[in-house]
Amino acid sequence: MNDSSWGSPPHAGSRAGYWGPVDQGPVQGAAPAGPGYDAPEAQQTRPMPIVPDVPAHGGNQDDDRGAARLGGPLFSDENHGGAAHAGAAHGDDTPSARPAAAVPQNPEPMPDASHPAPAPQKKSAGRDLGAAIGVGVGLGVVIVASLFVVKAVFIGVIAVAVVVGLWELTSRLQERKGIKAPLVPLAVGGAAMVVAGYVRGAEGAWVAMALTALAVLVWRMTEPPEGYLKDVTAGVFAAFYVPFLATFVALMLTAHDGALRVMTFLLLTVVSDTGAYAVGWRFGRTKLAPRISPGKTREGLLGAVAFAMVAGALLMEFVIDDGTWWQGLLLGLAVAASATLGDLGESMIKRDLGIKDMGTLLPGHGGIMDRLDSLLPTAPVVWLLLVLFVGSG
Fold this sequence. Notes:
disordered N terminus
């Protein structure tokens, strides 16, 4: 029997309503199936739902739907496998007598007018966009006001962000991994690192970094030796990851056009993140790094590169002294790459810790570290390229 014959009326010699071996002889005198029928051969059969007659060609659409919706135990191997083989032994060629694997099944029922399909859901941004935009605008106002009014105030803003970021990072390490990176020497050393970078340049930043690492080693000696190695390792990592990388923002600020350089750095990073989000949310299909950050796509990365390169060309041509548009293209490309890697790096840390955000301080954003993730690794990249393109100032 062809697969297309599934759902057609049973043979004249088979009893509708039974599954298993049947007598192929005439059945005109057979009693109707039901509880009152106790013929001997009925003891070897099991009742099954009556399959409605479906014409071979055409037919009522409602009947077709009813036949297509048959399922469950009727087509389960464990319920009727033995009976199907028994029917095949008697020469019965009905679908009920064939092995379960040979019976064509439709895993997707046909549309039912009484149960309309749910409307497709719109894509969700995953966060409270209103709160995120409000907080972002507020942070932007604080940064721009401090940057262009008094540079020393902006250095204070960086130092505060570093201390809060260190607090978030060390708190999550202790909560999720039991790692006790000493916060006090990290906070003091981190703030000193930013100030030393602004006052004494790169040399001052390196000295402050070395002294902070030494302070972490000594501070941890006041506690039992168990876990000493992992605690001080996490502490030195935190000192490098947060305050040392942030020091390059202070180094940019030391140039004669330092405020414009810092603004270029911030705008390019924000534009890169915005381009990745906008393009990825609208056109994202191919995952970029599904094991690290399932929400990021290759299309989003292309959007980040395109947006950052255009913004870089405009900023280098019209904002940075002695800058050219082609330098801006390279700068934008480098920012898109470093910002994406920084975002993936923090996502790797959060995935290892089993958390979604580093904190809850900023509504719609998470914690301070969730905003610094792309800025921190981008700072040394922008500082270096600006020094190569237009000098240290």
